[in-house]
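Annotated sample (chain length 209).
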Amino acid sequence: MNILSWNSCGLGMMRKRRRIMKLISEYKIDICFLLETKLANCSIGFVSRIWNQNHVSWFSNDAQGSKGGLLAMCKNTNFEVFNIEYGHGWIGLYGKHVHSDFHYFVIGIYAPCNYLDRQKLWDDLILLKHAFEVPWIITGDFNETLSQKDKNSGICHPAGSNSFSRFLQSCELTEYPLAEGHFTWFRGGSKSKLDRPWMASFSFLGLLD
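Output written by the structure step:
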């Protein structure tokens, strides 16, 4: 099972959509979360220009004006969706890996930049975790760091980091290590680790090749 999460910073440009198409094809993606789409609405026509294959299910969480927006897509011959949950800054898909009949919950996150909005997001997901007592994988842009080492400046927001840490502990989430590098966000000379995958069970590690 191959999962792609990518902060697109808007999907208006053709070269971005072509890049996503190439990634989906090259890495044989089964589930794809596109973050910060900046799309006020989405359509099957638009989705087909990104994932040009049959048997694709999709779900969108529309942008507020020109801010935010998420698009979730999955190959329904590999991942069958039973239930869709969503809120401000996230989309969650509960379903099963078709070939193994393994049930789990996968969530794409584009967390708000505002600390209080992020706190509400963490609270909502903690409630959701209690409602779906199945293995979780949660990935995306959390717009928060855990410690000083997650920023090249060494400066972090203690209240935000502590709130994020409590959320991870409450949901019993463990980080899935990156294959290479440490920082995931770059702007000028600034670097931060904002994007990362987490799991609330290692029972499906064999599905993530």
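Annotation: The helical segments are 14-26, 44-50, 115-131, 158-170.
Annotation: The first strand starts at residue 3 and ends at 7.
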